[in-house]
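[recover] target loaded
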């Protein structure tokens, strides 16, 4: 659920903080007050394109923040799979800073890519604006809608189809890589040579680093010996021992001097130990040209193998195993090809059984969905509507089976059914989307639905029905709706007013929650426009009372 929206310096919004709640949240305001800016801000936080032109004039950057509460265990698990750990309070905080030249996105205070942001927010919130209902124009979306409504068994069947289909495609790709005898013999010869070369190289993990260290030591052996000899000469003059003796003569007079004497004794012992170490190193570090050339040759060979095969020494074992598997496959090519054909046939049988099962699920679900959506559409004043879902078999398998889905509709009696995308107007598509969301509210996993003026082009009884649908969805999901209709505003559980203010120098948009008598005043404004009389106020008050009564009935 979306708990809070914070916006800074975006378009006309200088500062806006809105706390949302469960149920139906409605935002109203005059045309041009900034309602679209609010939706744009949310969209930007969800991963939409963020133009520098949206930064408020005079500001260095724009900023938007969304705070979600995620309590559902399945969602938390999905977010964890996406690499996102939820905090102990179950909150997820998304922030986006829009600078003229770049954007900075953070989720729970960790930087995030745009694609990851979009993947995460897709399971949290669903926005339906004046153009988002265009999703009803795609048959791919019809398939997803039908499968969601089909339930858990259908989902499990669909997941199995996807698994077997990927295996099937992999087998088909391997079989497509057919080769003649000459090609096979040539590849075998190359593999045999490479396997022999890698095996005989006998390169150990980490060997290159060991040899590189040894090479540097041998290469600089003379320089090392000279430096250590000079160091021995510099400290062999025994100045520290002489200093210790001098301090010893007076240490009895002061404890602090006794401490200094002990420090000098410790330094002397440490120097003696360092000298012995240097003497031992000099004795052992004689330059051996034969060993140097041997190390150099081995190091050059290892680096040649690395460069030739494009790998690090730690990857040589895996490369060798991969080439041995490929060689074994080529040696038994005819037998392997026969096995692949058998595997392809087995997977085709699995896909046929599962696709038939998925097809049956879709046919049964389509029948139920047709009835439910038709009822919802008629309730939204599509009085003579006919609605149908066409499930057609394809010849080839896909990740989802072998069905294609089409939504068909006739909005006027006597007219034939035609594809929804070909006959529905924008307003009809908006109501169609609302009908779908009403039907799918119980199975849709997204907690928050935002409707941006989905009531566009309607009024009267239809507007009342739309408001009732929004309330019903709000019983199961959080609904945020931007509206210009008093019928919808009156049904709000929480009502917010968006207003544009100017002081003659600058213009800004303010958002406040409407409470008490202010609700009736805002309903009156929506009803009566600029001139609000007592009669309009009385009508608004009556409308609110009737709306509250209707909401109780809808429970």
């Amino acid at each position: 659920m979306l708990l809070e929206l914070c916006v800074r310096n975006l378009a006309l919004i200088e500062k806006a903080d809105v706390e949302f709640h469960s149920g139906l949240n409605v935002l109203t305001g005059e045309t041009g007050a900034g309602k679209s800016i609010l939706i744009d801000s949310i969209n930007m936080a969800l991963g939409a394109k963020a133009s520098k032109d949206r930064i408020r004039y005079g500001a260095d950057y724009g900023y938007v923040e969304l705070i979600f509460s995620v309590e559902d265990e399945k969602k938390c698990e999905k977010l964890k799979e996406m690499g996102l750990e939820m905090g102990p309070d179950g909150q997820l905080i998304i922030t986006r800073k829009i600078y003229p030249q770049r954007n900075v996105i953070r989720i729970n205070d960790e930087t995030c890519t745009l694609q990851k942001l979009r993947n995460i927010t897709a399971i949290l919130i669903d926005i339906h604006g004046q153009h988002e209902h265009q999703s009803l124009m795609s048959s791919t979306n019809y398939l997803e809608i039908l499968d969601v409504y089909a339930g858990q068994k259908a989902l499990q069947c669909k997941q199995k189809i996807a698994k077997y289909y990927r295996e099937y495609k992999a087998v088909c790709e391997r079989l497509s890589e057919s080769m003649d005898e000459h090609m096979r013999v040539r590849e075998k010869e190359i593999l045999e040579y490479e396997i022999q070369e890698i095996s005989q190289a006998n390169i150990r993990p980490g060997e290159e680093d060991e040899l590189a260290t040894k090479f540097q030591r041998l290469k600089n052996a003379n320089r090392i010996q000279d430096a250590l000899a000079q160091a021995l000469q510099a400290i062999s003059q025994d100045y520290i021992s002489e200093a210790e003796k001098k301090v010893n003569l007076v240490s009895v007079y002061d404890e602090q001097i006794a401490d200094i004497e002990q420090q000098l004794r410790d330094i002397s012992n440490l120097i003696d130990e360092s000298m012995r170490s240097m003497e031992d190193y000099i004795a052992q570090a004689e330059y051996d040209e034969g060993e140097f050339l041997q190390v150099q040759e081995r190091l050059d060979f290892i680096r040649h193998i690395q460069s030739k095969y494009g790998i690090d020494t730690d990857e040589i074992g895996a490369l060798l195993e991969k080439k041995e598997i490929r060689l074994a496959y080529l040696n038994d090519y005819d037998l392997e090809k026969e096995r692949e054909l058998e595997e392809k046939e087995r997977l085709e049988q699995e896909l046929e059984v599962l696709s038939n099962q998925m097809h049956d699920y879709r046919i049964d679900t389509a029948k139920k969905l047709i009835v439910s959506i038709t009822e919802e559409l008629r309730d939204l004043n599509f009085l003579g509507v006919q609605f149908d879902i066409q499930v057609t078999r394809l010849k080839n398998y896909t990740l989802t089976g072998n069905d294609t889905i089409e939504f068909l509709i006739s909005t006027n009696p006597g007219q034939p059914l035609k594809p929804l995308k070909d006959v529905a107007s924008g307003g009809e598509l908006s109501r169609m989307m609302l009908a779908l969301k009403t039907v799918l509210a119980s199975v849709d996993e997204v907690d928050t639905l935002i409707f941006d003026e989905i009531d566009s082009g309607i009024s009267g009884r239809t507007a009342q029905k739309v408001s009732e649908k929004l309330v019903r969805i709000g019983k199961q999901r959080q609904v945020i709706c931007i509206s210009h209709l008093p019928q919808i505003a009156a049904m709000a559980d929480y009502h917010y007013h968006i207003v544009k203010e100017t002081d003659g120098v600058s213009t800004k948009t303010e958002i406040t929650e409407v409470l008490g008598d202010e609700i009736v005043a805002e309903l009156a404004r929506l009803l009566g426009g600029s001139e609000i009389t007592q009669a309009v106020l009385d009508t608004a008050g009556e409308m609110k009372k009737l709306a509250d009564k209707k909401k109780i009935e809808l429970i």
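[recover] notes: The first strand starts at residue 2 and ends at 10.
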